[in-house]
UniProtKB/TrEMBL annotation:
Species classification: Bacteria, Bacillati, Actinomycetota, Actinomycetes, Streptosporangiales
InterPro entries per the UniProt record, alphabetical: HAD-like_hydrolase_sf, HAD-like_sf, HAD_2, HAD_sf, PGP-like_dom2
Domain of life: Bacteria
One term under GO cellular component: cytosol
Organism per entry: Nonomuraea fuscirosea
MF-aspect GO terms: phosphoglycolate phosphatase activity
Protein name, as recorded: Phosphoglycolate phosphatase
One of the GO biological process terms: DNA repair
């Protein structure tokens, strides 16, 4: 299962511009890039008061969807690179069932879930703030997905870009791969957490999954049962 921001899509820089455009429409000073990066990975409405102290969240929420739609329409946000789409196809061809799990709201995910989007037919299910009771880094963020699929945590790999992603996956008993493609985080940032693999770029996931499924790789993690790890292998 996959995170969206700075994992499947590189989005931090675009979101920084988008949110500052919303702030400008509200007559507010722009946030600093440092403030944005420091709170990156948090749910938007949780992060915005730190990015722009004193912000009227109701006013922000009223303007944000229009600006979001404009960025999506202009191809400035949530562009899934062709190499990433090919990686998804290779994983699916190998029998994997791919799902998204993100801290975004349903409104922030609507365009990615649209029938005509490039992800249509490639992603089996999408879990977001609108259909899960708990958000990352809470390990219970995976409860609904695990219940719906009947999968055991040890059969799943979560791919994300933040220490909070690692914390949630570790707590739930899932394997975790850290995607470093955005350049915002380094391996040392994940030191407090268990990481099964680091990805320099998202397409590296194809070879990483194949490696993690080898008996030697499966046996090297004493905290999980022996045997092959499956990346949400389709049980249908």
């Amino acid at each position: 299962m996959l995170d969206v921001d700075d994992t499947l899509c590189l989005t931090e820089a675009a979101c920084f511009d988008l949110e500052n455009d919303v702030l400008a429409r509200l007559g507010r000073e722009p946030m600093s890039r440092a403030a944005h990066v420091a709170t990156w990975g948090q749910p938007l409405l949780q992060a915005m008061p730190r990015r722009s102290p004193g912000l009227d969240l109701d006013a922000f929420t009223a303007v944000y969807p229009e600006v979001l739609r404009a960025y999506v329409a202009a191809g400035r946000l949530d562009v899934v690179a062709p190499d990433n789409l090919r990686a998804l196809d290779e994983l699916a061809a190998a029998g994997r069932s791919l799902m998204l799990l993100t801290s975004r709201t349903e409104a922030e995910m609507e365009h990615l879930m649209a029938p005509g989007h490039a992800l249509a037919g490639r992603i089996a299910a999408v879990y977001h703030a609108g259909n899960v009771r708990h958000g990352k880094p809470d390990a219970r963020a995976f409860d609904e997905l695990l219940a719906a699929t009947g999968l055991e945590p040890r059969q799943c790999l979560y791919v994300g870009d933040s220490p909070g992603d690692a914390q949630a996956a570790n707590g739930a008993g899932l394997r975790f791969a850290a995607c470093l493609q955005s350049g915002l985080r380094q391996r040392a940032d994940f030191a407090p957490h268990h990481v099964d693999a680091f990805l320099d770029a998202f397409p590296d996931l194809v070879h990483t999954v194949a490696h993690l499924e080898t008996p030697a790789a499966a046996g090297c993690d004493h905290r999980r049962d022996e045997g092959e790890m499956r990346l949400l292998r389709d049980r249908r």
